[in-house]
Fold this protein.
Amino acid sequence: MSNIAQDIELVQQQIIAAASAANRDPIEITLLAISKTRPVEDIRAAISAGQEHFGENYLQDALPKIHSLKDEFPALCWHFIGAIQSNKTKDIAECFDWVHTVERLKIAKRLSDQRPQGLDPLQVCLQVNISGETSKSGIMASEVMQLATDVRSLPRLRLRGLMAIPAATDDIAQQRQAFAKLRQLFEQLNQQGFQLDTLSMGMSNDLESAIAEGSTMVRIGTAIFGART
């Protein structure tokens, strides 16, 4: 077994333990392996361990990997998790299955317009700046309802949920507080009939807190592939 396969197994055990502690079924939680900057060989090792969901945030780095693997592994699901520039929307709309970082209606409209008709609608999450950091991307909590309403109306997108990257902290209470804010927004949208099913929150250093607060998708890079060199 490769180191990557061993690390995936360890992360899956963490997810199971965190779900059990929160009285949740671990099957509700998807492991998204963040493969940005990683070579195809590392992705292949993860695939061999049963991993199917991969996250990328650098388009120029992601496209060669997607194209080289798509025929051999058609079941792979590619998630775009980076900042979206207008000149990149066509490639994102054509090559990815999910986008976690929608924060502007202009970008959402371009993704919808450029999503090929032969593909399923692009699955999207709205990125929320849940900690209010000036250095972070994402919309403010007060803007979520309007953007969700607008995105829901776009024909080639399917709004699935919310994503956030809270301010980094080792304080468990602070981690959970931030994730709880995102969950509350998620619940408010569903009370308004949005039928969302995805809370993309939690990374290598805070996945337990995220799962305790309802995460359905954890984005794990370092704990699977090691620190970037």
About this structure: The chain has a mean pLDDT of 96. The longest strand covers residues 157-163. The chain has one domain: 3-225. The two ends are 23 Å apart (CA to CA).
